[in-house]
Write a structure and sequence with these properties.
four-stranded mixed sheet; 302 residues; DUF4835; 9 helices
């Protein structure tokens, strides 16, 4: 019996590891730049899509249905020769067991995005050094961030190896003349450098534990006929966010969790069937963490 359990555990962990590659869509919007050379931006779009989807980030070869669905949306706002600036939105979702529902893992808008690019140049990732142009570095950073979040949602602290890769990319990019990599300082708390530093810190381990419990013991059981236990697990996990209540404004990782999950959290408990859970404490916590949704979401909870 012990051998059977051990084998099942190995197979489960093996399946987790196989989930860690991307199936990404990419959009590049250059309307603000004007001009007639829109084909160059389509070439950039294709190059990035091929780079993300064809690079072996984890050493695994997967079928499409096993890959992590993600989206990279870039809006270019300025150009000076081969140097571009704008913002990038990065999103990824995770399938939920027993359903067709896909749960958002991250939804990040990065406004500190500048890079150099020559049309049709080869995009090749080298984790040991900064590329010199920042495009590959930012994209690769977010790829490993997605891989880390996805792994954390299936196994407690399972994303550590991928967060370590993202941290190495951030360290390589330090003091290279591009914004968004600073850990602390004049760029504020919402930078790539600050985020990966937090995710790699023991101080954020409880948030990562909450993330795992929320998904694996909560969401993955939510589509059972009786949702009572799954909702209680999600409720209890969310209430543990109180640990970060006093530091929330400066806690980028915690901010991102709420930003990605606020619709989902609201919909889970926007029901007359909450198994006797008293939502007032969770409501007050959500109102403190995400007050901009007080009228549209939290005040609608009964």
């Amino acid at each position: 019996m012990k051998k059977i359990i051990s084998l099942l555990l190995v197979l489960f962990l093996y399946n987790i590891s196989l989930s860690q590659e991307l199936l990404a869509t990419v959009q590049v919007n250059a309307q603000q730049l004007g001009g007639s050379n829109q084909q160059a931006y389509k070439a950039l779009e294709k190059s990035l899509r091929d780079f993300i989807n064809n690079t072996s980030w984890t050493g695994k070869k997967l079928q499409n249905f096993e890959k992590i669905k993600s989206n990279f949306a870039i809006v270019l706002s300025s150009r000076d020769g081969n140097r571009y600036a704008g913002n990038i939105v990065v999103q990824a979702v995770r399938p939920v067991y027993g359903s067709t529902y896909e749960s958002p893992l991250i939804n990040i808008q990065d406004t500190k995005f500048a890079f150099e690019y020559v049309e049709n140049e080869n995009l090749i990732f080298n984790e040991r050094q900064f590329s010199g142009k920042n495009l590959i570095d930012v994209i690769s950073f977010y790829v490993y961030l997605i891989l880390g979040y996805d792994a954390d949602s299936f196994q407690s602290m399972g994303g550590s190896q991928w967060f370590a890769k993202a941290q190495q990319i951030a360290q390589n990019a330090q003091n290279r003349g591009y914004e968004g990599w600073a850990q602390i300082g004049n760029e504020g708390p919402r930078t790539r450098g600050a985020l990966i530093t937090q995710l790699s810190s023991p101080n954020i381990s409880q948030l990562r534990s909450i993330f795992y419990t929320y998904h694996r013991a909560g969401l993955d059981n939510l589509f059972n006929q009786d949702q009572t236990q799954a909702k209680k697990v999600i409720f209890d996990a969310l209430m543990q966010l109180r640990t970060y209540e006093n530091s929330f404004q400066q806690n980028y990782a915690c901010n991102l969790f709420i930003e990605a999950k606020n619709d989902e959290i609201f919909n889970i408990f926007n029901s007359n069937n909450n198994g006797g859970l008293v939502l007032n404490d969770l409501k007050q916590l959500m109102m403190a963490f995400a007050p901009k949704y007080n009228e549209t979401k939290w005040n609608k909870w009964k």
